Amino acid sequence: MTTYHCLEVEQLSVFYREAGNPNKPVILLLHGFPSASHMFRELIPILAKDYHVIAPDYPGFGNTTSPDREEFAYTFDHLTEIIEAFVDRLGFAKYALYVFDYGAPIGFRLAMRHPERVTAIISQNGNVYHEGLGKKWATREEYWRNPTQAKRESYRTAFAPDTIKNQYLDGTQDNQVSPDGYTLDIAYMSRPGNDEKQLDLIFDYQNNVKMYPQFQQYLREYQPLLLATWGKNDVSFIPAGAKAFKKDLPNAEIHLLDTGHFALETHANEIGELMLNFLKDNGI
Predict the structure, then answer these.
(1) Whole-prediction pTM
(2) Candidate list 31, 52, 261, 267, residue with the active-site label
C-alpha cells in the first residue's frame, strides 16, 4: 500500500508518497506543473510490487511547505537543492528517475550532480531539447528576452482553472480523463500567494532551456539507460523532444502514446508496463 509522510528538509516539511519494499531498487517520481505527487496515484501501485517508490512534492506544490517568496527563491536550482537534500536524508545511493514536465529540469540537474546514482531515466513528456518545444514557447522566449510587468501578468492564465483543465484534456479522447487530478491542481494553484511563486518559476524556466546543452552533454558522456513514454498529442512538449534523445542515446527506447500532456491520466497501465519491462530487461 501507499503511505504518506513528511520529512524536514532545510526547515521545510517535504511531503512524499512511499510504496514498495525498501530493500528493492528505488524509483524517484518527479512531478510537473501545475500538479504534485498525486499525479502518480495510479502508477505507484503498479511499480510498488517490484520497486521502492518515492514521490515528493516540491516547495510551493501539493502538500509540501510553501514558504513566502521573500524568504525562498522559487527557481529550479533551488527546487533541485531541496529535492537533492531530501534524497540525501533518505539515504538513497541509487535510484531510477521518472521525470515529467518540471520534473525534467530538476531530475536532470540531479543526474548531472550525481551521475553515479542514476540507474535509469524514464522521461514522460520531460523535455531537454529545443526540438521538443511546442509553438507556445516562442512567445515565452520573447518574454524572457524582453521581460515586462505586463508580460509577467499575462502568464497568470497558465494557472487559471480553464487552462489547467484543458492541459489535462487536450489531446485525449472524450470521457477518458477523471476530473480528480485537475480539480485538485486548481485548488492547489488558487492558494493565496501561490500565483507570484508560480510566475517566478515561469520566468526562471529560461534557465532550464539554457541548460539543455549541458543536459545533452550529460547524456552523451554517461549514456544512462533511458525510456521515453510520451503523450504524442502534447502541445507543450511535442514528440520531437522524445525522438531527439536518440541523437545522444542511440539505444534509448521511445514510445509515443495516443494521449496528451498528462499521459498518466489515460495510460498509467501502459506506462507502468513499459517501465517494468524496460527496467527488468536492463537488470534493474
Answers:
(1) 0.98
(2) 261
Each residue of 88-143: pLDDT tens digit?
999 999 999 999 999 999 999 999 999 999 999 999 999 999 999 999 899 999 99
pLDDT in tens, 164-218: 999 999 999 999 999 999 999 999 999 999 999 999 999 999 999 999 999 999 9
Residue 38 falls in the annotated catalytic set: no
What is the maximum alpha-carbon separation in the chain?
52
Residues 230-239 pLDDT 10s: 999 999 999 9
How would DSSP label each residue in 161-229? HHHHHHHHHTTS-TT-S-HHHHHHHHHHHTSTTHHHHHHHHHHHHHHHHHTHHHHHHHHHHH---EEEE
d(CA 186, CA 180): 10
204 CB contacts (<8 Å, ≥6 apart)? 74, 75, 76
Q: Is 35 helix (H, G, I), strand (E, B) or coil?
A: coil
Grid cell of 219 as nine digits: 547524456
Asked, as a colleague might, if the bond just before 56 is cis with ω within 30 of 0, I would say no
CATH class of 3-281: alpha beta
Cell (9 digits) for 130: 529545443
- With H, G, I as helix, E, B as strand and everything else as coil, classify residue 52: strand
